[in-house]
């Protein structure tokens, strides 16, 4: 018995898909499913999206969806992983270009704004789904934020930029920075036309944050 054709038409991909290997076609369809999930969830959230909607958006039969993901929830988890690769990349760029506190304000804000512009769908996905997504997706986002915070804390400790901080306080500082960046990204996503005002407000907030960071000394034994 032959397997059900993946495309609605039952034909092999044409155009850009012509000459592709089976693995390449499979990866292209998977990419299309991920993109469709992002697009459809943008109107509300992933909980309101149906498998049939995703299949229709991609142009495949519903059963073909299961060749790539066992459920919409697992599609959501893949989108979480993909979205946080963008966020971790951004934080790495921020810290690499501004390892000293005094450089952090002018070095970080343009990088955050550029990353949000280039990956708007992913940041919008994080903002929506961490408060209204399926339970496992919300849990995965929380885990990714914690993991990102731990990675940033390690980077801060290695850089020596927080030499007067205890390990616990470095963790708190990293949590503060990640929370600030996530909130700022959400504001840029929600109102892209107000980017200049958002960045100006963020610049003032960072100055307030860094006044405390530069003068903080952890107590002995903490």
UniProtKB/TrEMBL annotation:
Presence of the UniProt keyword Transcription regulation in the record: yes
PANTHER family: HTH-TYPE TRANSCRIPTIONAL REPRESSOR FABR
Keywords (A to Z) from UniProt: DNA-binding, Transcription, Transcription regulation
Residue ranges annotated for the HTH tetR-type domain, each copy included: 27-87
UniProt-annotated stretches for the region Disordered: 1-27
DNA bind region: 50-69
Top-level taxon of origin: Bacteria
Pfam families assigned: TetR_C_46 (PF21943), TetR_N (PF00440)
Organism listed in the record: Nocardioides cavernae
InterPro entries the UniProt entry points to: DesT_TetR_C, Homeodomain-like_sf, HTH_TetR, HTH_transcr_repressor_FabR, Tet_transcr_reg_TetR-rel_C_sf
Coiled-coil residue spans: none
The name this protein goes by in its record: TetR family transcriptional regulator
Signal peptide annotation: none
Statement: the UniProt record of this protein carries the keyword S-adenosyl-L-methionine: no
């Amino acid at each position: 018995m032959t397997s059900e054709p993946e495309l609605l038409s039952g034909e092999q991909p044409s155009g850009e898909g012509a000459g592709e290997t089976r693995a390449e076609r499979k990866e292209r369809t998977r990419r299309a499913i991920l993109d469709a999930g992002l697009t459809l969830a943008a109107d509300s959230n992933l909980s309101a999206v149906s498998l049939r909607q995703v299949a229709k958006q991609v142009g495949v039969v519903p059963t073909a969806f299961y060749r790539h993901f066992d459920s919409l929830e697992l599609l959501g988890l893949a989108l979480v992983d993909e979205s946080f690769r963008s966020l971790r990349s951004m934080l790495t760029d921020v810290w690499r270009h501004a390892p000293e506190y005094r450089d952090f304000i002018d070095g970080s804000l343009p990088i955050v704004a550029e990353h949000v512009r280039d990956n708007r769908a992913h940041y919008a996905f994080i903002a929506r789904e961490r408060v209204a997504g399926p339970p496992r997706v919300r849990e995965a986002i929380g885990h990714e934020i914690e993991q990102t915070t731990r990675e940033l804390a390690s980077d801060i400790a290695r850089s020596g930029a927080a030499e007067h901080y205890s390990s616990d306080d470095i963790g708190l500082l990293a949590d503060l920075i990640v929370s600030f960046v996530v909130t700022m990204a959400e504001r840029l996503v929600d109102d892209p036309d107000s980017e200049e005002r958002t960045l100006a407000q963020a610049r003032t907030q960072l100055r307030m944050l860094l006044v405390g960071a530069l003068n903080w000394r952890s107590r002995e034994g903490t």
